[in-house]
Specification:
By secondary structure, this protein is mainly beta. The protein has a single domain, classed as Rubrerythrin, domain 2 (Single Sheet). Helices cover 0% and strands 32% of the residues. It is built from no helices and five strands. The strands form two sheets. It has a three-stranded antiparallel beta sheet with strand order 2-1-5, with no helix packed on it. Strands 3-4 form a two-stranded antiparallel sheet. Strand 1 and strand 2 form a beta hairpin. The two termini are 17 Å apart.
Amino acid sequence: MKVEKAGENYKCNVCGNEVTVTKAGEGELVCCEQPMEKIEV
């Protein structure tokens, strides 16, 4: 899933890491070799 804007939250479904985007770019967030899932807080 492409990061769209700052402030979005993502979670790794493998290890449970969570991140909050501080600056959006063109890339995709990946952890444990899998795309991270966007979550709503």
